[in-house]
Every structure is written in C-alpha cells, then in structure tokens.
Amino acid sequence: MTSSLLSRRQLSLLILILPGLILWLSLAGPNTAPPFPPRQHDSIQRLYQQKVPDQDHYRLHLLLPLSPAATARQQLEQQLLIEALQVRLQSLPQPPQVQRHPGHLRLEIRAPTAPDDVLSPLLQHLQQPPALDWQARLNHLQARQYLQRQQPEGWLLGGGQDTGGSATWPNPAEHYRHWVAPERWQFSLSGPDRLARPLMPTHPAATTESAPEPNPELTFRVLPVTPPDGSARLLRWPLTAPETLEQLALTLLAREYLQQRLSATLEAVHVQGDSASGFSLSWIPVTPGGQASLLLQGPAQDVLTAAIQTPVTSTDLHAARTTLASRLDDMQRGQAWLDLLALYRLAADSFDHLDRALADIDATTLQRWLQAQRESDYYHVLSLPAAP
After folding, report:
1. DSSP labels for 144-188?
2. Which residues contact 226 (CB under 8 A, 6 or more apart)?
3. Which residue in 74, 319, 360, 378 has its CB near the most CB atoms, within 10 A?
4. Which residues of the chain are modeled with pLDDT < 50?
C-alpha cells in the first residue's frame, strides 16, 4: 500500500490557500495595457497625436491661429493673407485641403503611411510669399466687402461705420512671411500607429528659395457704406483662453447653455407668430484670447437679450451638460478634439477627465461666468434702428 504525498491536514490547508493563490497570480500577470496612451503631446514638436487602430491612413492637421477680426479693416487684412496662402498652396503638385474654422485655419494632409517627411518642406514652401498682384487682390476684396456691408449682418460684424481711417503696409510680402512663420503653427495627427520618429526637425533648414522682391506699399481703406435699414443688434464679449481643463469645460458649457436658452426662446417667439426674428452665435476660440459675437435680428431682440440674462437653473444646466457631453464624445472620435487641445496647448489626456470637470460646474458658477461677460465693456457694441 502506497502512502499519500500529503497528509490530510496539508490537503485541507492547500484547499483553503489555492483559490487565493490563483487570484493573486491572475492579478499579478502580464500587463495588457497599451504601451502608450491613445493621445500624446510633444511640446517641442508642438504635436498632438492619437492612435486610431482601425483608421487605415494618417491625417495630419496644420493649425494656424486667426485673431478675431472685429473691424472691417482687420477683416480685409486677414482675408488678404488667407488668399495669399491659398495661392501659394496652389503651386504644389498635391496641395493640402484648406478649411477656415472659427479662430484658425486648418490644412489637412492624408497619407497611407506616416507623413514624417512632408511637414518641414511644406512650411518652408509657405514661407516664400506667392507671386501675387497684392493691390489687385486687395481691390477685389474691398469691392466684395462693400457689397457685404450693405446688409445689416455684414455692417454690424464689420464694426459698423469704420472710423479707423486707412492703414498702410510698406511690404505686404513681409507681413505674409511673419503670419505663416513655422513657430505660429500647431499640429495634430491621427493614424493607425504612433510616429516612429519626430515629425519635424528641431531646427528646420532654411529655405533655399530666393528672397522676394519688395512689394509696393498697400493702403487699406474701407469703402464707406450708409448704415443699412433693418432691425439688428450685436452683442460681443472677449473670451479668455482657458489655461486649464476646468476653464475649458466652463467655456464649452457656457456656449452650449446660451445656444439652448436662445433656441428655446426663439421657438416660443415663432409660435407667437414672429417668424422674422433670429440669432447667430459666433464663438471664436484662439490664444491668447478669443471672442464671442451674438447677432440678434427682428422684433424679438429685447426678448432674446432678456433670455440670456435669466438666472441659470439646475434643469437648464443638466440639459446643457448632457447635450455637450454627447457632442464632445462624437467630437473626440474624430480629430476635432485633438485640434482644440492643440490650439489651447492643454494636456493630451484632457478628455479622460472632462466628465469630472463638467460635473463640478454648478449653476452658480455658470451664472457668475455669464454675468462677468455681461459686465464687460465690449458686451453691447452696436445696434441698428428698426426700419421705418
């Protein structure tokens, strides 16, 4: 008769200890977490990137901040530079797609492989001003703006009757060169994998193209327009660039709340038979500071103005927070959230903590933020009298 290797007491102890040992081994097993977070930020490269395993291509965004153009003259200057950039891009064999967004221009490059050799040549190419008849282009823009400013919306958003006189640019090509300087751009990248090497050298090589000939002096002059008839009002306030996730969450929630509050008020006005009233809310995020513009049109201007002065309720806050969370979830599935982080230079993992930041905002906090904007010197800018 053979003897047992373990006594009955030892077997009993093993039965008691074995489940705990198996659990401990499973918890202490190999780490299955990804070696890198899905989003990363390289401050030296000014690059935000996110890994999207099911995306079969790379998408590189070049982001150029646009300062708010609050006057007609500023709008002319900015539009002239944008058109010069577009002309310069057209000389490329495969120019990037250009889109204008509130607060920035976006150039998009799509490639089947990692685009780690296209950024420096592109930025160098953009540094060379285009062969452009600057004065002819400016004349065309001035004529187009003249027509736009004959409408109430164009007149108000262009600063009303521009009294700033004329402005001169001794050499518009130099203004362009400064405007597209490599250090002004921010970058975001999404793709099936992380880049294996830097997107751009730390010290890019100087352009080998010859310097442009000096351009003749340009004179920016806003063509005078008689204030158009109509009933419209422009409310405008400055936006401080958020430096933390909490400030960004408050700004985004305030915009969503205003949109919902005004939409609900306008719907009630239309039910009462006033179909001529409306509003448009423009929100320009840019560093170091942006701008919000609210254009009110039609007989219900006072009603809409009163609506944004109504105290924030918990119900309103919950509705705005719920809708915003859904929109931001869709936004972060693409690349728009990454672009926003790049423009504000916030932490790459900001979305992971956004729910907490939104939940911490109560009605009192939002009310104080809105009240501070209403007390701004820029809040009520211009209005047009009702047509006789």
Report:
1. HHHHHTTSHHHHHHTTSS--S--EEES-HHHHHHHHT-GGG-EEE
2. none
3. 74
4. 1, 23, 25-36, 386-388
Residue 152 burial (C-beta neighbours within 10 Å; 0-12, 13-18, 19+) = buried
Contact 128, 209 (CB under 8 A): yes
Residue-level pLDDT at 169: 87
Token pair of 352, please?
């992971």
Long-range CB contact pairs, 257-262, < 8 A, 24+: 257/312, 257/316, 257/317, 257/320, 257/366, 257/370, 258/294, 258/308, 258/370, 260/316, 260/319, 260/320, 260/323, 261/307, 261/308, 261/310, 261/316, 262/294, 262/304, 262/307, 262/308
Rounded to whole angstroms, the Cα distance separating 106 from 115 reads 16
**Region of residue 285 (phi > 0: left; psi between -120 and 50: alpha; otherwise: beta):** beta
d(CA 52, CA 59): 11
Amino acid code (one letter) for 194: R
Distance CA 275, CA 304 (A): 14
Kindly report the length of the chain: 388
Q: Quick one: tokens of 51? A: 């890994």
Tens of pLDDT, residue by residue over 197-210, are 778 765 555 555 55
Q: pTM here?
A: 0.84
- Decide: 351 and 328 in contact? Cβ < 8 Å: yes
Kindly report the CA angle at 59 between 53 and 62, in degrees rounded to 5? 140
SS3 at position 84 = helix
Give the whole-angstrom CA distance, residue 159 versus residue 149. 10
Whole-angstrom distance, CA of residue 267 vs CA of residue 300: 11
Q: How many CB atoms lie within 10 A of CB 366?
A: 19
CA separation, residue 167 to residues 82, 217, 283 (Å): 18, 10, 27
